[in-house]
Amino acid sequence: MVHTTGFKYQAEVSASYNEARMFAVRDESQLVFTSKLEIEPRGTSHEYFDYFGTRTVMFEVLEPHTEMKLTSTTVVELRLGGESKTNLDWQEITNAVARDLPLTDAAAQTRRTAPPAELARFAKKTAAANTPQQTALAICNYVFESMKYEHGVTGVNSIASEAWSKRIGVCQDFAHLAIGALRSVGIPARYVSGYLHPDIEPAMDDTVIGESHAWVEWFVGDWFAFDPTNNIYIGDRHITVGRGRDYDDVPPLRGVYAGPFNSELLVSVQITREA
Fold it and tell me: Against a cut of 0.70, is the pTM above it?
């Protein structure tokens, strides 16, 4: 997979300060063979894992430039997920949240995820008659059935309630809506950033235009991953890059620059199935 992104400025800027999250996560579901990030123009960089465990590169370019380009190249083996192996009841989840700081973070609403009243009512009604796992799946299905996916109708600054009011959004909005509804009934949930192969049955050695994507994970004893935009389980088409409370914790590229000019974000993703 090759992910290229960066900024093109209207005129020359004197410096820029940035952070990038473009490396595939190494865990039991992803075996990363190679992973490299090239930055042009070159500058000083520092790599670290952020609070949520996402591999991050912070870098600065201190020479005049009109464009900045990042290219991430990754070879990764994906392993199929499935149903959660453990299913805590409602009281057990409440107890787990009370004694675990990461779960406490994942249970708290943010400005982006605060759910609209209608969705919160649905979540509460569903939770009253179902287990946490059944409730979570029903919430994702409800978001999928209620929303229409349309590229470009919302931006990176959108919040869940705005997308719900129009019933139109992108993967980021679907994820924020599902997370907000999950948290509203006490299920810890987190935002997952990554990539999605667009083909249901990818052809071998065929390079296609992929896309950045977002989905959700919730805690019911284990962390369970699901894609509410497509209403599917996470499998061998999803590549995970980072996790957080919402989009603000995992943007692929974020930064500031010195200059009075506007900038344009450039993005392209190419994915090739090799085996």
Answer: yes
